[in-house]
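Hello forum,

I keep getting stuck at the same step: I have a sequence, I want structure tokens, and every attempt I make locally crashes halfway through. Rather than fight my setup again tonight, could one of you with a working pipeline run this one for me? It's a single chain of 242 residues.
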Amino acid sequence: MSEVPQVRLRTYRLARKAYLRGSGGELALRLPAYFGRRLWRVPMAEVNVVDLTSPRTVVQKIGDVYAEPVVTPYLPTTGPLTRPTTLLLFTTPQRVPPLRWLAAIAPNSSLPFGYRASRSAKGARLDGVFLRAADPGDAADRLVAAGAQRVDDPALWLREHRKRVADPVRADAIALSEKRARAIGTAAGASLILTLVTVQWASDHHGPDWLWLIAAIAGTATALLTLVALRAQRRARKAGSA
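Reply #2:
Ran it on my machine without issues. Output:
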């Protein structure tokens, strides 16, 4: 096992640099856009790395439903429309550092945890994270040399490390509920964008009262849709644990 020299993640030229660094059996993730100066520290023994650009990597959709949500968001360090190159999977879910307020309210971000959840006593935990490395092959090699495990089939790895719902009827019900929750979440995101655009236009052009009314309605719809989506996800998970 060796130390990991700084593994650079892709960032904009003038942005604060994001990187991975390992030493003393621990991996430190520096993601300033999300966690500011705080480092996200994960035991190296918990880290499993997938090089998504490698021809060895098997990308398949098995369609398994798990008793607990498998949360592996993409944390882009450039733009949200980019594609990740590297997936880190954690043997057990790992708690994230407190989220920055700006990251929590960014309209182009769809994080599975919020500002308050990341600061609560329970905390927010992730099963893994998608990242965009400057050199994904080199990043994977360095992490493996430092003690991480290489994974070529992430779907198979999840089958072996997370509890699945065995009852097919219950699994179908959960999958349908989560699909509906995602659709509601997408509608909430669209409503949020409409709210922001309307408010910006009304502010710049001294818009009439009815335009502000539209913004208020869209904002209220965003909040309601978000609550409905969260409740739908909770109901799906309760069905899975029943």
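Residues 4-161 form one domain. If your local run keeps crashing, start a new thread with the error log.
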